[in-house]
């Protein structure tokens, strides 16, 4: 029994570690501009990853280091832009209340399309062709566009799957979830709400508070459950009260 529990803990600890790392990387934070309160959230870890990838792409694009790699030039363009576009898409997140608006619901796709597809795939190749040791090739742009399209497609459905799993995890808590995991989930939900949170101040009506009663109270009123009967009261009726008629069935046997 002890060996089985130890083995289960051995397999459970990497899963817990992976779950915590995923939550830490995917956690987004609201960034408020000085004069504009836009419902945009940023994931700082993906901002760091994108910066490192951009530095690597600049090294490959503006130097001759790419010729020393044992990869085809078009395949290198395809892989680099696919990874860069997929990572860049995860930088942006939007508040759940703002997702009712079409622009904010697709803000990640719009920002990624402008920055990665237009500037990263097309404009960057035009700028590189101005260097004396670089020449413009249309195949590089096509490889960039294909890689960015696949990277955006994968990132979009991964983010959609992640949000779906988060909503399921919030609504249905497993019975064997430890207290530490519940506390971390609640803290993360407060930091990154997936569903619109209820505002108690907005729900108050002019008539006052609504009191929710037990459903069994109504049954007691209908079926007179819980009150003493006439026999138990011992004839303690009011003087002018008429007794209720009783039906007595004698045993014919």
UniProtKB/TrEMBL annotation:
- Presence of keyword Ubl conjugation: no
Q: Where is composition skewed (Acidic residues) in this entry?
A: 215-233
Keyword flag Oxidoreductase = no
Region of interest (Disordered), ranges: 186-253
The alphabetized UniProt keywords are: Membrane, Transmembrane, Transmembrane helix
- The residues forming the signal peptide are none
The residues that cross the membrane are 45-63, 75-92, 104-124, 136-158
Q: What is this protein called?
A: VanZ-like domain-containing protein
Whose protein is this, by species? Gloeophyllum trabeum (strain ATCC 11539 / FP-39264 / Madison 617)
């Amino acid at each position: 029994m002890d060996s089985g529990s130890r083995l289960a803990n051995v397999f459970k600890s990497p899963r817990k570690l992976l779950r915590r790392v995923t939550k830490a990387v995917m956690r987004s934070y609201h960034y408020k501009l000085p004069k504009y309160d836009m419902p945009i959230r940023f994931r700082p870890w993906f901002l760091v990853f994108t910066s490192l990838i951009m530095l690597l792409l600049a090294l490959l694009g503006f130097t001759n280091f790419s010729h020393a790699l044992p990869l085809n030039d078009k395949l290198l363009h395809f892989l680099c832009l696919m990874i860069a576009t997929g990572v860049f898409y995860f930088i942006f997140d939007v508040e759940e209340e703002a997702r009712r608006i079409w622009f904010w619901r697709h803000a990640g796709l719009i920002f990624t399309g402008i920055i990665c597809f237009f500037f990263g795939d097309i404009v960057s190749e035009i700028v590189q062709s101005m260097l004396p040791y670089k020449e413009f090739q249309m195949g590089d742009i096509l490889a960039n566009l294909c890689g960015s399209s696949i990277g955006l497609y994968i990132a979009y459905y991964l983010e959609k799957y992640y949000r779906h799993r988060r909503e399921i995890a919030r609504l249905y808590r497993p019975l064997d979830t430890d207290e530490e995991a519940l506390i971390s989930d609640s803290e993360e939900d407060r930091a990154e709400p997936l569903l619109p949170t209820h505002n108690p101040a907005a729900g108050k009506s002019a008539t006052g508070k609504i009191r929710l009663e037990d459903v069994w109270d109504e049954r007691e009123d209908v079926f007179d459950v819980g009150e003493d009967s006439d026999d138990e009261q011992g004839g303690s009726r009011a003087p002018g009260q008429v007794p209720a008629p009783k039906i007595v069935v004698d045993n014919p046997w």
